[in-house]
Amino acid sequence: MGFVLDTGHITMAGINPVELARALGHRIIEFHLKDTQPEHRGGAKQRRERNDAMKDPIFFALGKGGVDFPTIKKQLDEIGWRGWLTVELDSSPSRPPKESARISKNYVESTLGIKVS
Predict the structure, then answer these.
(1) What is the CATH number of the domain that holds 54?
(2) Mean pLDDT of 61-87
(3) What single DSSP character describes residue 48?
(4) Which H or E run includes 74?
(5) Measured between alpha carbons, how far is residue 94 from residues 14, 53, 73, 103 in Å?
(6) Does residue 115 belong to any structural domain of this protein?
(7) pLDDT one-digit tens code per residue, 16-31
(8) How far is it, in rounded angstroms, from Cα 36 to Cα 100?
(9) Beta strands 3-6 and 84-87, pairing class
(10) What's the alpha-carbon Rg for the chain, to the nearest Å?
(11) What is the rounded distance in angstroms from the CA atom of residue 103 to the CA atom of residue 61?
(12) Helix or strand run (H / E) with residue 5
């Protein structure tokens, strides 16, 4: 059995996505890449009630710093992981969605070294 790991939701659930990828990378078939605020790195310390995604976002274009994507990528490279990496953005209140997509694309290519076609 395989599963999809959503980095943003896992982080906000208080779970470290780096540790989960390390433990279960061989069972992960897809990652939904989503970032959070830097203070949530390693897993949010307290639960957030349902928020208004446009007024109080918790997910952001990649590179905000709440998810350690370079370490996750390094772990996946070490085990020869092959699967889907899907950039997912729930909202984009501070800029047009196309700009958030551009920011995430630049992050994936420049920081993670993955060519986006």
Answers:
(1) 3.20.20.150
(2) 95
(3) P
(4) helix 69-78
(5) 25, 11, 28, 13
(6) no
(7) 999 999 999 999 999 9
(8) 14
(9) unpaired
(10) 14
(11) 6
(12) strand 3-6
* Residue whose C-alpha is closest to residue 117's, from 81, 87, 93: 87
Residues spanned by the domain of 23: 3-110
Tell me if 117 is assigned to some domain. Answer: no
Check if the beta carbon of residue 93 is closer than 8 Å to that of residue 57. yes
Whole-number percent of the chain with pLDDT over 90: 74
Residues in a beta bridge with 31: 5, 85
Please state whether the predicted TM-score (pTM) of the whole model is above 0.85.
yes
Tell me the pLDDT tens digit for each residue of 65-76.
999 999 999 999
* Reported confidence tier of residue 88, pLDDT bands at 50, 70, 90: confident
